[in-house]
Amino acid sequence: MKLDNKEFGFESFSSEMEELKNEKHFDYLVTIVGEDFGTDEGLGCIYILENTNTHERCSVKQLAKTVGTEYVIPTVSKLWADADLLEREVFDFFGIKFLGHPDMRRLFLRNDFSGYPLRKDFNMDPERNMYSTEDDIEIDTTTEWYLTDSGDLKSVSHSLFTDDDFVVNIGPQHPSTHGVLRLQTILDGETVKHIYPHLGYIHRGIEKLCENFTYPQTLALTDRMNYLSAMMHRHALVGVIEEGMGIELSDRIMYIRTIMDELQRIDNHLLYTACCAQDLGALTAFLYGMRDREHVLNVMEETTGGRLIQNYYRIGGLQADIDPNFVSNVKQLCKYLRPMVQEYLDVFGDNVITHKRFEGIGTMNEADCINYGVTGPAGRASGWKNDVRKYHPYAVYDKVDFEEITLTHGDSMDRYYCHIQEIYQSLNIIEQLIDNIPTGEFYLKQKPIIKVPEGQWYFSVEGASGEFGVYLDSRGDKSAYRMKFRPMGLTLVGAMDKMLRGQKIADLVTTGAALDFVIPDIDR
């Protein structure tokens, strides 16, 4: 969607955002984009919101107010819970202080990092000491900023822990965190009281790289964020560029992209069911999922040449046409997989131990899922209808018949079942398309140097674990002025504190397994 930003002004920003949330029902905060708009406007944020009743979306632009050398914006974390981590991310990379936010600490970078790397004037000289190689400084207090009546910027400190708190670190090197994620967990005996996520252990500065790469050069970066949603991630990136350039794709391209996206979704969900079993100690079910995932990768590899990293979508189409055996191999795969899915339930999903470990664990109702931005199967397990393919269709999802899987309990068991049922829906989509792929071009040739006209766009897809979106601010050059990725997993991890308060430490592992996050997607 091309953004047509509302602008409210600093003084009325809080009241206008409250009206959007409470009176106009824009109850889903999709993302917050921090940006350095240049010398004329300075720093600020773009807020993308959705009305979950009508699925209408809007965007709000708010410039930061300068107080001395500092930049400030009122927090919206009291309106939308997912703004907690989203605002901390903006503070981390731009240095904007959100007034009234109770936890203004860095989220991805080290506490001793010097400067704010996504500002345009950030000094990238490697000789400058941006951080040390010593152990990072542990902070046991956080800062809340506010403006006095006279307009001065003041702060108050809050303690993260009490003297009686028992703090355990789950990660950053722990097999059940599915990557380098650190969950600083406060316990009362074995009961979880609070979880503070620490991110960025494999942060690679992808959004900063995009400002210096040409558009074709940025494509390889998305494959490496969530390697289990590589097709969908790149689909979002090429989609926002193609929308900005006004490229109209052939039906053949859109059919093939839709099929490839669904093959990638099956790939993810098979590994998901396998890893859920592994995290609970069920090795046999893990091997079943890995066995069948290989068949999916075999089919994709014949066309894309890759298994983990799928370097296939290009701006204007596809890297190559489908393999001559692609259609027949996909049909054989669908025929093979359908009965196999029941095996996962027979061995693991409907096992009495699985039910005891998953049922009633990590429960979250629909309203809280919306408030925390818990999209994808994790949110649909609570009844929230949030499938991007249905409500913001792209490719040929508006031409196929499939069911949006929603369940009611909102616990880890329903999240698992939601993934299982989505495998069947992906097979349904593929089977509707595979015999009807139109003839035509698989790639529409572009100019040697691709430039996107001036403007701001946001394009999202339904990734394997939720909504994945790309925000693009173009100034008409061959590189993006600002590119921001909405990761699927950031809001999932941000909701774990809400999900797990009052539950046992062992439930943290099962809840994380059922949420299906991948750390490179979060860290970027």
TrEMBL record:
It is a peripheral membrane protein. InterPro entries: NADH_Q_OxRdtase_suD, NADH_quin_OxRdtase_su_C/D-like, NADH_UbQ_OxRdtase_30kDa_su, NDH1_su_D/H, NiFe-Hase_large. Gene3D superfamilies: Cytochrome-c3 Hydrogenase, chain B, NADH:ubiquinone oxidoreductase, 30kDa subunit. Residues 15-126 form the NADH:ubiquinone oxidoreductase 30kDa subunit domain. GO terms for cellular component: plasma membrane. It comes from the Bacteria. NCBIfam families: PRK06075.1. In the C-terminal section; belongs to the complex I 49 kDa subunit family. This is NADH-quinone oxidoreductase subunit D domain-containing protein. It comes from Prevotella micans F0438. The lineage of its organism: Bacteria, Pseudomonadati, Bacteroidota, Bacteroidia, Bacteroidales.
